[in-house]
UniProtKB/TrEMBL annotation:
Pfam families per the UniProt record, alphabetical: DUF383 (PF04063), DUF384 (PF04064)
Region (Disordered): 335-361
SUPFAM superfamilies: ARM repeat
Composition skew (Acidic residues), residue ranges: 351-361
Name of protein: Protein HGH1 homolog
Domain Protein HGH1 C-terminal: 283-335
PANTHER family: PROTEIN HGH1 HOMOLOG
Stretches that traverse the bilayer: none
InterPro entries: ARM-like, ARM-type_fold, Hgh1, Protein_HGH1_C, Protein_HGH1_N
Family: Belongs to the HGH1 family.
């Protein structure tokens, strides 16, 4: 005989919406405590939950919460991410300006993006929402949702912060990294320049995802000249500012720094999350893989900023990253050096799930 829990799972597909609502609401805790109960009958409950994401907003909220949590399971993730129709529904719903659960759809998309083949999003197109005003390229739409969501100007129910985790995981792939550094025809903008302005945003999630995306894109050395060019991407101020506090530097150091880092206000604070600081330090380390990158960082006095960060952030990962970066910046360039990954630098692109757990609600 089925257990009471299994009977409850059976009610999520009931014809009565009140019963569906009660069942899904009571099942939310079991999506983390007992995920196996949703995998019975060849994942039939998962198929039902996928349908319920388009139900009444409250039922949809519970169904989405359950699926976000269950997608931590590899089998469930595969079941969701390989269902092209369902992925299309998620992409349409996350972009709808009146979708009350847009943030949950974004969280689910963040977890789905950990499935390697979801890199196909880069080639997807869909009719854009009129209010969004994007191109028909899905990546363009996600970028514009992320930007407009920061102040709630697109959907009053959503901030779209978790799309930053989508970008971080998709940027594992070379074609997506190329997208981020290439000017797009529909708005004549380079996508990563839309992300860089959020490295000091109030949202920890947004800052973390953006930092990881920038780091992943930095693995491609051919993009470094664009990163450094003040007339192009100009990324360095947006990486260095989160590393700076209200420290005072001597005149010689300060005058050589980038203009954005000079005369900072007395209440300036470095990023409160040491993991984000570590990510930015690792990005800088990746950018020292060419001699022009190393020479630029010496010229603009990156070392004093790293020195002060080392002093003030008590975190093993930050300390190690500072040490590695200082060794590179202080080494003798008298001997010709090959452009290669510096010893101790990250050796591969890291997905968001290698640095953080999957999103859970």
């Amino acid at each position: 005989m089925p257990t009471e829990l299994e009977e409850l799972v059976g009610f999520i597909g009931h014809s009565n919406p009140t019963i569906r609502l009660t069942a899904t609401e009571h099942l939310v805790p079991y999506s983390t405590a007992n995920p196996a109960v949703f995998k019975v009958e060849d994942f039939k409950p998962i198929d039902t939950l996928k349908i319920l994401t388009r139900d009444h907003p409250k039922i949809s909220e519970h169904a989405l919460t359950i699926l976000v949590n269950l997608s931590a399971d590899g089998d469930v993730l595969e079941k969701l991410a390989t269902d092209d129709t369902f992925v299309r529904v998620v992409l349409i719903r996350v972009a709808h300006p009146e979708e009350q659960n847009a943030n949950l759809f974004a969280m689910l998309l963040a977890n789905l993006s950990k499935w390697d083949d979801l890199k196909s999003i880069i080639d997807r197109k869909q009719t854009p929402q009129e209010k969004l005003g994007s191109s028909d390229v899905v990546m363009d739409q996600l970028m514009d949702l992320f930007v407009k969501g920061s102040d709630g100007s697109y959907n009053k129910h959503a901030n779209y912060d978790y799309l930053s985790y989508v970008f971080a995981d998709l940027s594992k792939h070379a074609k997506v990294r190329e997208y981020f550094v290439s000017k797009q025809s529909y708005d004549d903008a380079v996508p990563i320049t839309k992300l860089k302005v959020f490295t000091e945003h109030k949202s920890d999630v947004r800052r973390k995802g953006v930092a990881s995306t920038i780091k992943n894109v930095a693995f491609d050395k051919h993009s470094h000249p664009k990163f450094f060019d003040e007339e192009d991407i100009d990324i360095l101020p947006y990486i260095l500012l989160p590393l700076t506090g209200n420290e005072e530097y001597d005149d010689e150091e300060s005058e050589a720094m980038l203009e954005d880092l000079q005369l900072l206000p007395p209440d300036k604070q470095r990023d409160s999350d040491p993991d984000i600081i570590q990510t930015h330090l690792e990005t800088l380390l990746l950018m020292t893989t060419t001699r022009p990158g190393r020479e630029l960082m010496r010229r603009i006095q990156v070392y004093p900023i790293i020195r002060e960060t080392h002093k003030r952030v008590n975190h093993e990962g930050v300390t190690e990253a500072c040490d590695r970066l200082v060794q590179v910046l202080m080494r003798d360039e008298a001997e010709p050096a090959e452009d290669k990954l510096i010893e101790g630098a990250p050796a591969k692109v890291e997905s968001e799930d290698e640095e953080n757990e999957l999103v859970e609600v």
